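Human:
I keep going back and forth on a fold encoding question. Comparing notes only helps if you start from a blank page. Show me how you would write down a chain together with its backbone fold. Write it directly below this note and I will take it from there.

Assistant:
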Amino acid sequence: LQVLRICLVLTFVVCGGMVALFWPQNAWLGFGMAVASLSALAVFVALQYQRIAFLAASICMVTIVYGVIHLMAFFGKPDGIGAAYYFCTILGAFFFLGITGGILYSMACAVAVVLLYLPPALLSVQAMNEFYVLLTSITCTAIIAYYYEHAVAKRTYALTKSLSKMDRLANVDYLTGVSNRRHFFEQAKALFEQPGSLSLIALDIDDFKKINDTHGHACGDEVLVTIARLLDHRLRDDALLGRTGGEEFCILLRVNRTIAHRRAEELRSAIASLSCRVGEQHIPVTVSQGLATRGPGDEALEHLMLRADRALYEAKHHGKNGVALAKPGTALA
């Protein structure tokens, strides 16, 4: 879009200059150049105010430039035809092929002009002027296109990087690096709409408040990070992981109850055998989990979450460091 804008501005300026050049010689040719210049300006203004689509503006741009080329050919003014042609095609090369492609195309154009126009240019002043105009137009257009395309590429990269960072801040938990609550439930709701087996594990770190009170909040943060890394490492591509609370995580698995129970036990055992090391301290950590598998009564993700939470409280009530299965039946039973 930015390249198209600069092309329209340059077309307006160049055609405007041609009006002053050709009007004394041929009024109709000057009038045609004036129409082309004003048309480029009109398309530019319409594009700025979003009155015309990008594709339509591009077609108008190409029509104006090639209209000018054929207009000059019709009135027998070949001197500027090559310059206008290269102006159009070199900008197009940078636009469609990128900086490297544009440079290579410009070099090919320059070599072609030297080979075709330099020998006759040595024989007459007029041919030398035409050779000079063509070579100058190629060089100037390539320089303008290069610096502008380079600036656009830098701005695009900076914008993409900024948007990527904003997207990460919006979707990822700042401490553990896994999905935050909002992003997790957005993805989970989308998966819930799909058919197939679906199991939800609500996982809570046992006695996490005691860890914070005894060893400090920095130590508690390290425990959270360590467990999040373990979960992320052990879970496969068919699982969603998110931090949904202070010491709470949720895992959504596209598997049935039996497989989900086995994987929940594997996670519980792996965490129980893990001793979180913070400085010189080794802190034993266990987790309690509640597992609910989608059934006929689960009409929404919230119903499945409610049953998993109730199962989690049951695991806490029965001594922690365990996995409790939600009772089958209706979600609100």
